[in-house]
Recover the amino acids of this structure.
């Protein structure tokens, strides 16, 4: 690893809690827990019965969903720490194809939780293999695209990726898991 790696940090599932956002919105609307089974797949719909898919889609495409996602514990503090240690940190995030609310709200989330100066650090792309970097911290276990990536993925820990043991695993609250970045 270079002494000061160029870091790409995913947003949903790493900084902003997409799963929890769905659970909160579902509870608020239906006054019951979201019918989500054990989290074994990256996409929530794959852990939900098909009859609930339209309601799920309605939740994550509606205005305000992406802007109001709760932060993942320790994420905001970790990003400020990484920047303060001189790392070149960028937020590398994929919008949903129903982009109308998602795109602007991803920027709003970053401004609200990290500060305006972080907005210029956002890289929005549907294909992360096109983005240059040394390390990509991302919760998605299978990242595909049209190029061979230049970065190495560190897997951000989540219940749906725990069956993968082929990559370094990171969790913001486990500071030892990313302490090497500060060395
Ligand atoms: C878990 C999950 C995610 N999505 C969407 C939300 C984001 O726009 C992308 C993931 O982006 P990332 O940069 O790879 O974090 O996928 C979704 O539509 N359904 C889901 O269950
Ligand atoms: Mg993600």
């Amino acid at each position: 690893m270079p002494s000061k790696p160029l870091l790409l940090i995913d947003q949903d599932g790493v900084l902003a809690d997409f799963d929890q956002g769905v659970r909160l919105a579902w509870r608020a609307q239906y006054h019951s827990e979201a019918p989500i089974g054990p989290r074994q797949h990256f996409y929530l719909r794959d852990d939900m019965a098909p009859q609930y898919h339209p309601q799920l889609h309605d939740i994550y495409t509606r205005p305000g969903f992406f802007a109001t996602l709760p932060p993942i514990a320790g994420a905001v503090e970790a990003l400020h720490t990484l920047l303060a240690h001189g790392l070149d940190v960028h937020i590398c995030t994929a919008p949903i194809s129903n982009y109308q609310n998602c795109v602007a709200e991803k920027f709003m989330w970053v401004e609200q939780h990290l500060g305006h100066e972080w907005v210029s650090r956002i890289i929005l792309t549907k294909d992360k293999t096109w983005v240059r970097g040394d390390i990509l911290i991302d919760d998605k276990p299978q990242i595909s695209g049209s190029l061979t990536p230049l970065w190495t993925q560190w897997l951000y820990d989540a219940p749906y990726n725990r069956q993968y043991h082929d990559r370094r695993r990171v969790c913001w609250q486990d500071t030892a898991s990313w302490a090497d970045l500060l060395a």
User: Anything to note?
Assistant: Residues 99-114 form the longest helix (16 residues). The beta strands are 6-9, 88-93, 122-124, 135-138, 152-156, 169-170.
